């Protein structure tokens, strides 16, 4: 392939406007060739289509799609794009089930296109350095606290409360994407999901994981936190404490603070370009597998109704 | 290794007595060297230990363990056995979470021992022939109906209703182990789990899967069926109908009926011997992954309390 990768964004919601459009605009490996939205308006001078099918039939030539729709409809769009020979960037979570992602992975390999299950938090400013610092150190315990106000971050997003929408695991999977990137493999021992009586997905969860060495990893997810918000991962080691704050963007080590600029979506698009150029895929299911395990293994407790 | 594989059964419940003990007795590749049970009595002249730790410390030499305990405690026992260099046969389901099975798989590979996640229904008399008959045929639709009386099959088994115990998916995973063996890969599109208000696990489920070609696969699981019991998989194809009945033991094809003798557990132990002799593992997570997906993606509906 010569020239930029012509990419279409499908699903012009908040994340597409806030992150994908600027990340594509600032990466010369890409050109935003089209957008797809059943309701939205055109972005700049870029052609807008109502469905992916219309774009594929009548639109400009594209090489790739970035799927930013709710996860419940992602499989069908990904299959349609792969069938048309397009590379596919999946927003997180990569699907509504583990099995559908496995089917897509196999299908993309057969079709010779790139499938990228993206985990934006892994590209947060402190995460790479945290991973390097932890390698080889003895980990004694881990605490993950992800507490935010759902009314601020997901106003009126009904799909997030539906089956397949993950509830509080929608932000929680970001924490899990970091934890699975910087820690040895771990698994859920027991946990509790807190469900509003009028919703299908949890508003909070308390989970106890362990790794193969028995190291405890405690996770506290809550969507009911007003005021200051918390997205922290604290790791106690034989060499002192590591703390990632602000969703991985700030890193505190015994030797002092490490900060760098936010580059989550620029990092994702750089990675996607590498994958497309090298003809490979990157589909790490581990974060979604932990969420499925939490639904499978966790005890459910009803809490008061939630109204937007 | 020369001579028989010396195996210990851990967890002397119904499945151990009914299936494992006779299957081992009738396979000269194995010798039952010990049993482990916190409460049970000794089986024949075989030494009995109260814990796996006591067996490993004070018992006869063994080469392998068969873990027949409830899934919630399987990981710790498997890890202990692998650490002692023993091959491990896991009853189904192989664990209470997907992530713990992945950790065990990696650990067994590093330790150079065999890990076998067993799915006994795949060895039911009609399944191998059904798989061969379906290969290359165009599948139009699939119906899986698994309806039995929990009071008959799981009397007083409290663990089966606890988180990690799977509820009606304990038999349902047998159907899924056959379906994932004879059909192309498929995934859950939508479903409903029916939960007794006083239990943590479902008593029934209605699930709609599809494969990559769009073929519908409907699954009806119910633990409330008294009278005749149903364990059927019906596959409509371009060459007529295939029906597996009685949990895979009877096969009906357009050309007539195919029956053979039951060989589920003998088949499992023959496979386990092959794996141990060849130094390989067999850990297919697909059936448990579908169950996790059902818990993740399914809608929950409360039904009346269940009392044993």
TrEMBL record, chains A, B:
Pfam families: GFO_IDH_MocA
Domain spans labelled Gfo/Idh/MocA-like oxidoreductase N-terminal: 5-116
Origin species: Sphingomonas natans
The protein, known as: Gfo/Idh/MocA family oxidoreductase
Gene3D superfamilies, per the entry: Dihydrodipicolinate Reductase, domain 2, NAD(P)-binding Rossmann-like Domain
Family annotation (InterPro entries): Gfo/Idh/MocA-like_OxRdtase_N (IPR000683), Gfo/Idh/MocA_oxidrdct_glycsds (IPR050463), NAD(P)-bd_dom_sf (IPR036291)
SUPFAM superfamilies per record: NAD(P)-binding Rossmann-fold domains (SSF51735)
Domain of life: Bacteria
PANTHER family: BCDNA.GH03377, DEHYDROGENASE
């Amino acid at each position: 392939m010569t020239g930029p990768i012509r990419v279409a964004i499908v699903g012009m919601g908040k994340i597409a406007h806030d992150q994908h459009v600027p990340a594509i605009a600032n990466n010369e490996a890409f050109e935003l060739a089209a957008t797809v939205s059943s309701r939205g308006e055109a972005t700049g001078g870029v052609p807008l289509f109502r469905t992916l099918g219309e774009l594929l039939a009548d639109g400009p030539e594209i090489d790739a799609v970035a799927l930013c729709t709710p996860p419940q409809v992602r499989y069908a769009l990904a299959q349609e794009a792969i069938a048309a020979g397009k590379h596919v960037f999946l927003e997180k979570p990569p699907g509504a089930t583990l099995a559908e992602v496995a089917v897509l992975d196999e299908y993309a390999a057969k079709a010779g296109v790139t499938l990228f299950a993206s985990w934006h938090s892994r590209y947060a400013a402190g995460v790479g350095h945290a991973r390097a610092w932890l390698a080889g150190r003895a980990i004694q315990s881990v605490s993950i606290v992800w507490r935010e106000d759902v009314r601020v971050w997901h106003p009126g997003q009904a799909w997030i409360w539906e089956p397949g929408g993950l509830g509080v695991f929608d932000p929680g999977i970001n924490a899990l994407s970091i934890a699975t990137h910087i820690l040895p493999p771990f698994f859920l021992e027991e946990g509790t999901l807190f469900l509003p009586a009028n919703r299908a997905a949890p508003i909070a969860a308390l989970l106890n994981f362990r790794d193969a060495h028995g190291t405890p990893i405690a996770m506290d997810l809550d969507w009911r936190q007003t005021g200051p918000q918390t997205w922290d991962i604290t790791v106690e080691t034989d060499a002192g404490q590591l703390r990632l704050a602000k969703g991985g963007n700030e890193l505190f080590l015994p030797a002092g603070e490490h900060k760098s600029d936010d580059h989550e979506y620029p990092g994702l698009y750089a990675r996607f370009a590498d994958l497309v150029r090298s003809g490979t895929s990157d589909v790490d299911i581990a974060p979604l597998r932990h969420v499925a395990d939490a639904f499978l293994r966790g005890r459910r407790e009803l809490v008061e109704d939630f109204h937007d």
